[in-house]
Amino acid sequence: MDMKRDYYEDIELFPGWVEKFWFFLLLVFLGAFPFISNNYLIYVANFMAINIIVALGLNILVGYTGQISLGHAGFFAIGAFATFTLMQKASFPFLLALPAAALISAIFGFLIALPALRLEGPYLAIATLGFGLTITQVIGMIDLFGGRTGLHAPELLIGPWELKTDLDLYFLLVPLTIGLIIIARNLTRTRVGRAFIAIRDAEIAAETMGVNLIFYKTLAFAISAFYTGLAGGLYAFVLRFIEPEIFGLYMSIVFLTMVVVGGLGSIFGSIAGAMLLSWLDLELRNILDIPYLGNWLKDLSREYFSITGVSNIQYIVFGGILVLIMLFEPHGIYGFWIRTKKYWKTWPF
Amino acid sequence: MFFEVDNLSIAFGGLQALSGISFGVNKGEVFAMIGPNGAGKTTLFNCVNGIYKPSSGSIKFKKKEIQRKKPHQIARLGIARTFQNIELFPYLNTMENIMLGRHLFMKTGLFHGGLMFGRRSFAGKEEQENRQKAEEIIKLLNLEVYRNKPVGALPYGVQKMVELGRSLALEPELLLLDEPCAGMNSEEKQDMIFWIKDIRDELGVTILLIEHDMNIVMDISDRIMAINFGKPITVGEPAEVTSHPEVLKAYLGVG
Fold first, then answer.
1. Has residue A68 got a pLDDT over 70?
2. When you count CB atoms within 10 A of the terminal residue's CB, does the N or C end of chain B come out lower?
3. For residue range B100-128, what is the model confidence (pLDDT) as tens digits?
4. Which helix (H) or strand (E) holds B17?
5. How far is CA B225 from CA A257, B190, B237, in A?
6. Do B91 and A265 touch (CB under 8 A)?
7. Taking CB atoms and an 8 Å cutoff, what residues of chain A touch B76?
């Protein structure tokens, strides 16, 4: 029998002491992490944090509202270029430029949503794909955004604090990411999130219950683009140099893969998927340097693919891992998590 | 008249789905629509809801024309409905499904929702108030057992009840029930009849009903309209309508 004191317990962030304790432990770990690891791992963590922000935004659109997007690298690029341009050309301070860039990205999200209102499934995928491919071309044509040569990072100042190293960025990114995770989680558990899910599951029923379809679909696009734009602005500082070519189709697909592999319609899934794919993306680049396995893969590729060996065998391994995950756990990491939780709850029965 | 449809017609390409439908519903009435499959009953509901735009005619609710309005605007006027093929949100639990019916009564937007910190925050308070209301409906329809279960996994009859609950959460003045008893066993049907009567008598909701089970129709409706091929056959008291020769012909092929 549930003994509820009030209905807030239904939607509470941390339902009990156990969750509060784990969250506290996580904060302690995240605070101590940079001091017990090396520079490279801090860079990996930053990369993960940025991808988590994108995955959250994309999951709100794809997982919660049921609208697919293959053009999120476009919003990511808008965020990155807008942040740099605003800071360099309009001398905005970083704390103003980043949200402004995210807002610009959100406006683009809103504009994309207008034609997208009439499109569904594969048609929407193609329309957003077109947007993603076009926007980087357009950015590359305009000298204000550095044209084909790209832009270098301006000085990153937050008040008197100058962020130079990956470690500095870590202390900006981690709290921001935690904040954005909590906001996304709150949003999806309250009225707006319910309206999104309603649109995903039964559009007509949602409408007859009073959900304004046009408003909420465009809102989902705007929120998604806002998160992605914000992440783009931050990513630009992690890279320190941006050019349009970085934000290609491959990036959009990796974003979508994070959400699907993590678990559609789940905040936990977005985080897990983003972390796993970021890690794979970075680690697999060095796969050929791994002792034994690297040589084995080299031999394999020489034997079956080409005489000199395939240079991009990491993509094949990457794809293989993804196929295996989806094969054994169609609901992604989130599905795996739910099953594991259930198993241990009823263990040993 | 509380609710009035006048000379309503709609065509899909060459198919005249509804032609010249007129009827009026009094406040507090259960008004049933009968007719063979494909007669246009659900199409009529879709017109009332604003999902379809009729080609001609008018639909007046409390003397106001609603025909040009969008579905969500019509919901705001106090018209709720259930669907013939269940249209629930399968991954949400019973409580959350019913909470969607409270959508219009809530104001939590992006900022209040995203920044819901603590039970005293705007969104926290509003959630609690509306969950309280949703709980009243759950209690009314005896759905407590299913409160925290995703509705996609619930038995068919229960899903129908959840859908009824969701539409009641809208606190409607006019409730459209599209075959509320379809696919139910006789016990569930009895329950549903009981609730429909209760909703009318206790909550004072006017009900527009589509149902094929004539026993139910005879039991609960005050007046009946029979339609066939999108055209009205007759409107009147249950006994009148069921003995009307055209109705018998449409249903049984007699005469």
1. yes
2. C
3. 999 999 999 888 998 888 888 999 999 99
4. strand B15-25
5. 54, 23, 9
6. yes
7. 210
Distance in angstroms (rounded) separating the CA atoms of residues A201 and A203: 6
pLDDT at A5: 67
Q: Which two tokens stand for residue A247?
A: 């934000």
Question: Which residue in B75, B119, B167 is closest to A8 by CB distance?
Answer: B119
How many CB atoms neighbour CB B117 within 10 A?
12
The partner residues of B59 in beta bridges, in order of sequence, read B5
CA gap A195, A65 in Å, rounded: 8
**Residue of chain A nearest B108, judged by CA positions:** A191
pTM of the complete model beyond 0.90: yes
Q: CA-nearest residue of chain A to B51?
A: A204
* pLDDT, tens digit, 9 for 90 and up, residues A170-214: 999 999 999 999 999 999 999 999 999 999 999 999 999 999 999
Tokens at residue A331, please?
């609901």
In chain B, residues with a C-beta closer than 8 Å to the C-beta of A204 are 51, 71, 83, 87
Residue B207: in which H helix or E strand, if any? strand B206-210
pLDDT in tens, A85-126: 999 999 999 999 999 999 999 999 999 999 888 888 899 999
Bridge partners, B235 (sequence order):
B225
- From residue B113, give the alpha-carbon distance in Å to each of A105, A193, B55, B126: 21, 9, 41, 10
d(C-alpha A154, C-alpha A104), whole Å: 19
The pLDDT score that the predictor gives to residue B254 is 60
Q: Are B200 and B207 in contact (CB under 8 A)?
A: yes
ipTM: 0.92
CB atoms within 10 A of CB B253: 7
Distance (Å) of CA A327 to CA A59, A261, A271, A275: 21, 11, 20, 20
Cβ neighbors of A219 (< 8 A, separation 6 or more) are A192, B110
Element containing residue B64 per DSSP (H, E): strand B64-65
- pLDDT tens digits, B157-167: 999 999 999 99
Domains of chain A: 32-346 (1.10.3470)
Domains located in chain B, CATH noted: 1-78+172-255 (3.40.50.300)
pLDDT tens for B27-64 read 999 999 998 888 899 999 999 999 999 999 999 999 99
Angle between helices A332-346 and A267-283 (to 10 degrees): 120
